[in-house]
Fold these 2 entries.
Entry 1:
Amino acid sequence: MEGGAIFLETHHVIALSEGGPDVEWNVVAICPNDHRRAHYGEDRIALRKRLIAVLVVQFPEKMDALATINQSGMHRSP
Ligand SMILES: [Zn+2]
């Protein structure tokens, strides 16, 4: 941004529409380009895996919950 500030958007790694919770351990701050990529990119599934790995490092106690919700969400239609 003007002045050199960084603009970030928040993204639910497991979408609310897929049963992801609206909590801190399901949210990342990413730049607008990567945010678009996370929703519409051909590599969005791989990117989601990487973002989940980041969340697991930050919130290790939520590892099981993230894995369970991720698996159930992966089978839903986009
Ligand atoms: Zn998003």
Entry 2:
Amino acid sequence: MARIVVLGGDGFCGWPTALKLSAEGHQVAIIDNLSRRRIDAELGVESLTPIADMPERIAAWKRVSGKTLAFANIDIAHDYEGLRDYLADFAPQTIVHFAEQRAAPYSMKSSWHKRYTVDNNVNATHNLLAAVVESGLDVHVDDQGISIQGNG
Ligand SMILES: NC(=O)c1ccc[n+]([C@@H]2O[C@H](COP(=O)([O-])OP(=O)(O)OC[C@H]3O[C@@H](n4cnc5c(N)ncnc54)[C@H](O)[C@@H]3O)[C@@H](O)[C@H]2O)c1
């Protein structure tokens, strides 16, 4: 069984991915800055199925599965040291990267939204790769199905 970090693990793709990997017996840690929840509040929208907050979701998973999910609230686009240090400490063998602003329509709302999206998504991936190199981790990075083998 592996130690796996799911970046963007509070999101649409990330949460079920984290649960599946945890159910398979892997040791799973989620990193997410909860920006998707902030965007939903900004847009005044919510899911048809209410989405509980992270502590409640993690507690529910523990109740039904007996398994523990770790969670860290880190903005991986802007807290490089936080990301690097968390990865060095957890020492994952695999990182699954979903931590992006996903919506093209949101990115086109204004100049600010466009710059926010590019800054967030480009920096997040760049910081991830830099953190893998700097921490010396021998880790498999999966970015939405695109695999990269890092060796420090
Ligand atoms: N939803 C789909 O059907 C689908 C299909 C193919 C590809 N994708 C891609 O997968 C990725 C995730 O999509 P999703 O639908 O799960 O989106 P989502 O918005 O539901 O999830 C993304 C998560 O990443 C987090 N996040 C964003 N920026 C972050 C940052 N700087 N630091 C830490 N956390 C951050 C958000 O808070 C959110 O929880 C996107 O790149 C999307 O384009 C999605």
